[in-house]
Specification:
This protein is an alpha/beta fold. The protein is built from eight helices and six strands; from the N terminus they run ααβαβαβαααβββα.
Length: 238
């Protein structure tokens, strides 16, 4: 991290540490970064509608990057289409893996069961790195309450020279639920069936009462992140 970027990160976190999400989104998209240099990366998961709705109120034409790994639930892709139409989001972009990488490393489609880190690398980390390359900053919907690994997240981070902005990082589950109710936002169709954090189909399971919301991701392993949000932005590796 260069000294200039580090100082800017420090100043931005000081400026927006106590600022509400809508004000953060507005400032980041309209003041802090050049036009066309900010995007949102969204999984269209169980809580994604909140940040997507906020974006739609300020910049419905903001690029929305959606990682279509080739292993997603059909319900997630249909939910993406439903929310994009409902919220009037005009620039939802599906980001897909390099087919040659898939052919070379996961020709049988079972890499997730043999080497989940490498599977995430070629299906998520590499495609996202290409997708965010034109941007200087991107929004995420991460919240501190979601997992122990996210408990100390700041509003802004730096990864690979790009600013990652977490405008609702301080929100609680109750805040999320209240927002859904206030704006009558539709829920992800799998949430009612016990899927509280939804990623790729083979690596996502139901969450039992009292478990961490992300306990159903890569269950039975010590893996807790796909790699796109590891500290410092480093890849998960092979």
């Amino acid at each position: 991290m260069s000294g200039v970027l580090a100082r800017r990160l420090e100043l931005l976190n000081e400026r927006y540490a106590e600022t509400g999400p809508l004000s953060i989104i507005s400032a980041i998209t309209e003041e802090e970064f050049a036009p066309g240099k900010v995007a949102l990366v969204s999984s269209f998961g169980t809580e994604s509608a909140v940040l997507l709705h906020m974006i739609s109120r300020i910049r419905p034409d903001l690029p929305i990057l959606f990682l279509d790994t080739g292993k997603l639930f059909g319900e997630t892709k249909r939910y993406r289409d439903q929310l994009a139409k409902l919220l009037g989001l005009t620039d939802v972009r599906s980001v897909t893996p390099d087919p040659e990488r898939i052919k070379d490393l996961d020709g049988k489609g079972v890499l997730w069961s043999q080497n989940p880190n490498q599977c995430c690398e070629i299906r998520k980390v590499e495609p996202l790195a290409r997708a965010v390359a034109p941007f200087d900053a991107w929004f995420t919907g991460r919240k501190a309450f979601q997992a122990a690994t996210r408990a100390k997240l700041p509003v802004l981070e730096l990864a690979e020279g790009k600013f990652k902005v977490n405008p609702i990082v301080g929100w609680t589950k109750a805040d999320i639920d209240a927002y859904f109710e206030r704006y009558a936002l539709p829920r992800h169709p799998l949430e009612a069936d016990g899927y509280l954090s939804i990623g790729c189909m083979p690596c996502t399971s139901r969450v039992a009462p009292g478990e961490d919301a992300r306990a159903g991701r890569w269950r039975g392993t010590d893996k807790v992140e796909c790699g796109i949000h590891l500290p410092g932005g480093q890849p998960v590796g092979a």
